[in-house]
Write a structure and sequence with these properties.
CATH class of the largest domain: Alpha Beta
Number of strands: 9
Shape: globular
Strand order of the largest sheet: 3-2-1-4-5-9-6-8-7
Number of domains: 2
Structural class: alpha/beta
Helix content: 25-40%
CATH architecture of the largest domain: 3-Layer(aba) Sandwich
Bound molecules: S-adenosylmethionine
Strand content: 25-35%
Number of helices: 10
Distance between the termini: 36 Å
Radius of gyration: 22 Å
Length: about 280
């Protein structure tokens, strides 16, 4: 019988500075990833968790797979995990670089790599997907998640172009988290004077945090960090809200003269993709 390692145990064992275990958004991310991997009753024997860091997701994977191996290039993390999870005999940790460590072809039921691939160059991402394909058994699944920016070099399209074309994409999920509005500095000051930021907070309780980042130059970011999970349907609403607040002001024309809202193109989301290796060669 599988020995279930529950959330309370994971929280107790967690020893990390990012409060991953206690953050609702992180728990939600892990839960979504587990759900996706388990779709259609997929029940893997061996799972490899690449870039396991503090083992938060690896330990959760024991609810799904019979044995889980977490690897990370960071030896400090691995030693710490080995100590903390010493009692969990279906969970092992090893220091290794996925691109270097040999795995027998077709030996794994499932591979997960959450928030790891943006450490890689596009060429390394290609190598990662090719190698993952070789290591998986036919019908095996690869689950990856990455931060995607709505603009710039790390877009969804450029990331997906590195996926080995032999994979079939089964499902994808997106978690919208940070939403940036770019405003010119005078506008931020103007909004401050008019108490717009306070108004925003009152009108939109979903905004957990409003931050301003100041960079040299004229462009500055107003970062709206929503609480919990940012639904894609909420984003247009937020944009309307901010525009509406600006437009409702009698000095609207002056403000719009200074303002350029860039949204949601400058936002960030997490993309989760579930890929499957062909059950037999040439089936799709
Ligand atoms: C942002 S952490 C993600 C941790 C965890 N997967 C999660 O989603 O919470 C990325 C981890 O990937 C590891 N990593 C980077 N390149 C790697 C490689 N080539 N092989 C194994 N681990 C790697 C890093 O050391 C780091 O601990």
């Amino acid at each position: 019988m599988k020995q279930r390692i529950d959330d309370a145990q994971i929280d107790r064992l967690a020893n990390e500075p990012w409060y991953v275990s206690s953050r609702a958004s992180q728990k939600d991310r892990f839960a979504r990833c587990l759900r996706l991997l388990a779709a259609d009753g997929f029940s893997p024997q061996q799972i490899l968790d690449v870039g396991c860091a503090n083992g938060q997701f690896s330990s959760r994977l024991t609810s799904l797979g019979q044995t889980v191996l977490g690897i990370d290039i960071n030896n400090e993390r691995i030693l710490d995990n080995q100590r903390r999870f010493a009692d969990c005999d279906r969970l092992r940790f090893e220091q290794a670089d996925f691109l270097q460590r040999p795995f027998a072809a077709g030996s794994l039921d499932s591979i997960t790599a959450l928030e790891v691939l943006y450490y890689f160059t596009p060429e390394q991402q290609r190598q990662f997907f090719q190698k993952a394909y070789e290591c998986l058994r036919p019908g095996g699944r690869l689950l990856v998640s990455v931060n995607i920016f709505f603009s710039g070099h790390f877009s969804e399209a450029s990331f997906l172009s590195t996926v080995d074309p032999r994979f079939r994409q089964l499902q994808a999920d997106r978690i919208y988290r940070n939403y940036y509005y770019r405003l010119e500095l005078p506008v931020i000051e103007w909004l401050d004077q008019l108490n717009y930021l306070e108004k925003l907070r009152i009108f939109s309780p979903n905004i957990l945090k409003l931050e301003r980042k100041f960079y040299p130059g004229i462009w500055n970011e107003l970062l709206l960090r929503p609480s919990g999970v940012m639904d894609r349907y909420l984003l247009p609403g937020l944009r309307r809200l901010l525009l509406g607040l600006i437009e409702s002001d009698p000095l609207y024309h002056l403000v719009t003269g200074l303002t350029r809202l860039v949204a949601p193109e400058s936002g960030k989301s997490q993309l989760i993709v579930l890929l499957e290796k062909a059950k037999c060669e040439g089936t799709w």
